[in-house]
Design goal:
With 488 residues, the protein is mostly helical. The longest helix is centred in the last third of the chain and has 31 residues. The radius of gyration is 23 Å and the shape is globular. The N terminus is likely disordered.
Length: 488
């Protein structure tokens, strides 16, 4: 018979996963536990990954040769006063790259990133996620350290290095999803995964202002050297402290090991050899995640790569102010994502709210809210405070989607979560590839009206994704996601 959950949306409401009779293992404390230790170290890993991804967005402002250019001292809004830079930070090279070349450089990372999404999920399921994720980020670190050399050789070399960084980093989310399939008790998924993945927002929060400070007091090359060094430290810790499964962890308590394995025993497929590819690609709940993920990332990646440019060219902030203000939206996103994870699991475990209802509610708020405030930001003109406030609220509300569609893969098919995330993230990477290029092509004159168009496009895509997931998303393990082990 099939060991699968029913596809009805009331199963997880009537019989919560950890309250079923056959699952009598005592809940293991969170404090000093191996699973929360993994979450913290994963958070550090995604901190590094996103710091390496976004530091170029700030450094780019200082890498350009603006001598004699009208854009050097002008912006649409009056420029803010900026203290003179220390003389010793003028040693780094600058380059004559037009706006189109800048768009290709900023978007090139994603051309590599998309390549390793599905292979990353497959390899993590078959061979384990620890070393795949570890070496993926290590590769990104190494190519980050080579960025200044590549820039000196030419824009083509820099694009190539960024593509290689993307190839390394492309395995990170699928591999981590695959690892959590073996580590995360169902009613702790929102907490554990938001702790892990909000490292991405934290990395953005720290990297944007710190990159601005580094460019201001040193020069842009140190942005890549210092964050690269932080990545090397993470790899050493990851290699020494992490294992693929609870059963192979040398320091886990027996209570925690039994708690995790008992909570997952009816959700995981017993074999790693069989993968129901046809069922996966014809699953409407999966395509609901694909559409939501694509839509959310269009806004996320457009702002991630171009917000420092908007702050500089439109609002007139200096490189030092730029990084700090560009980080505010991601600080709010990090805070709400963490709070949302706690609230989501509280609603599911204590209030017995259905999983599908929680996922859809958090997705709606996390996608419709950002769309509204993003459009509003386009009408603030030169009201700096209001513009930054609306962009911050927009990105902050987006953090709630971390407990919505973003972890729904583990609800519908925990055994294949890494592969599913690889599929959805492949589609969700496309906005990172084309979003910055389209946005820069629409903002050649750098007017407020042009940027307003960019914001409208992002908001409309967000609304469509939220509506699609609300109609077709599911919250229970799908019948095809649990392998048949025997028949009766």
């Amino acid at each position: 018979m099939d060991h699968s959950a029913s596809d009805t949306e009331t199963d997880d409401y009537k019989q919560p996963l950890l309250h079923r009779k056959e699952e009598n293992a005592e809940k293991a404390p969170a404090w000093c536990s191996a699973r929360y230790g993994l979450a913290v170290l994963a958070c550090y890993g995604f901190f590094v990954a996103y710091a390496l991804r976004v530091n170029l967005s700030v450094a780019m402002v200082d890498m350009l040769n603006t001598t004699g250019s009208s854009n050097a001292s002008q912006s649409v809004c009056p420029r803010h006063s900026s203290p003179p830079k220390p003389k010793h930070n003028h040693t780094a090279s600058v380059y004559d790259w037009d706006s189109e070349t800048q768009g290709w450089i900023l978007g090139s990372f994603f051309y590599g990133y998309i390549v390793t999404q599905i292979p990353g999920g497959y390899l993590a399921r078959k061979y384990g996620a620890k070393w795949l994720l570890g070496f993926g980020i290590l590769g990104t670190v190494i190519f980050t350290l080579l960025t200044p050399v590549a820039a000196d050789l030419g824009a083509g070399y820099l694009i190539a290095v960024r593509v290689l960084e993307g190839i390394g980093e492309g395995v990170t989310f699928p591999a981590m999803h695959a690892m959590w399939a073996s580590w995360a008790p169902p009613l702790e998924r929102s907490r554990l995964l938001t702790i892990s993945y909000t490292g991405a927002q934290l990395g953005t929060v720290v990297a944007l202002p710190l990159s601005g400070m580094i460019c201001f007091y040193l020069d842009w090359t140190y942005v890549f050297y210092l964050f690269g060094a932080a990545g090397l430290v993470w790899f050493v810790l990851w290699a020494a402290l992490v294992t693929n499964t609870p059963s192979t962890h040398p320091r886990i308590s027996e209570q925690e090991r039994l708690y995790i394995t008992a909570s997952l025993k009816h959700e995981l497929s017993p074999t790693s050899d069989y993968i129901p590819w046809r069922s996966i690609f014809t699953s409407l709940p999966l395509w609901a995640i694909v559409v939501a993920h694509f839509s959310y990332n269009w806004t996320f990646y457009t702002l991630l790569t171009l917000l420092p440019t908007y702050m500089n060219d439109i609002l007139g902030f200096s490189i030092k102010q730029n990084g700090m203000l560009s980080a505010l939206p991601y600080l709010g996103c990090w805070v709400l994502a963490l709070m949302g994870g706690q609230l989501a699991d509280f609603l599911r475990e204590t209030c017995l709210v259905r999983t599908v209802a929680v996922r859809k509610a958090f997705t709606l708020i996390g996608m419709v809210g950002p769309a509204v405030f993003l459009v509003a930001a386009g009408y603030t003109n030169c009201d700096y405070i209001l513009a930054v406030a609306f962009l911050t609220i927009s990105s902050s509300l987006g953090g709630l989607s971390a407990s919505g569609f973003n972890i729904n893969h583990l609800d519908i098919a925990p055994s294949y979560a890494g592969i599913l995330l690889g599929i959805t993230n492949s589609f969700a990477t496309i906005p990172g590839m084309v979003g910055p290029v389209i946005a820069r092509s629409l903002t050649k004159s750098n007017t407020i009206e042009e940027w307003r168009t960019v914001f409208y496009i992002s908001a409309a895509i967000n609304l469509f994704g939220a509506a699609f997931f609300s109609l077709f998303g599911k919250g229970t393990v799908q019948p095809w996601a649990v392998q048949r082990t025997h028949s009766q």
